[in-house]
């Protein structure tokens, strides 16, 4: 098993140098798990922020040979749980296959005052052929 921590150049860069956006855990057979750090995005509404988040997640996954179809687990943090329908409508546009395992939490605030939603995921990358 090999672990690689990464901030892919082809994806939006992290807000600071204190964390890696992707941890790739690669197995000997070529399959891998991708653990993607919580992502936030700019925007006024939860829908705008959610759209930006999923676009960033898509770019991070693609940099590792995966896509949003490979997401197996998702955790969402909302500063207002009543916004889950607004968030969910955007999520359904990006996650169109079998839904991954999921947890959604209401939190009093996120590390940026204007952030209303944060999403972290785990994806499974198929065997290399």
CA-based shape: globular
Helical coverage, percent range: 10-25%
Q: Work out the strand percent.
A: 25-35%
Q: Indicate the low-confidence ranges by residue numbers.
A: none
Short structural summary:
The chain is an alpha+beta fold and 129 residues long. It has helices spanning 46-62, 84-94, and strands spanning 2-6, 22-26, 32-39, 71-78, 101-106, 117-125.
Task: Give your account of this protein's structure.
There is one protein chain. This protein has a 6-stranded mixed β-sheet with strand order 1-2-3-6-4-5, covered by helices on one side. The mean pLDDT is 94. The protein is an alpha+beta fold and 129 residues long. The two termini are 18 Å apart. The chain has helices spanning 46-62, 84-94; strands at 2-6, 22-26, 32-39, 71-78, 101-106, 117-125. Strand 2 and strand 3 (32-39) form a beta hairpin. The chain is 22% helix and 32% strand. It is built from 2 helices and 6 strands, in the order E-E-E-H-E-H-E-E. It is globular.
Characteristics:
single chain; 129 residues; alpha+beta; 6-stranded mixed sheet; globular
List the helices and strands and how they pair.
Elements: E1 2-6, E2 22-26, E3 32-39, H1 46-62, E4 71-78, H2 84-94, E5 101-106, E6 117-125
Parallel strand pairs: 4-5
Antiparallel strand pairs: 1-2, 2-3, 3-6, 4-6
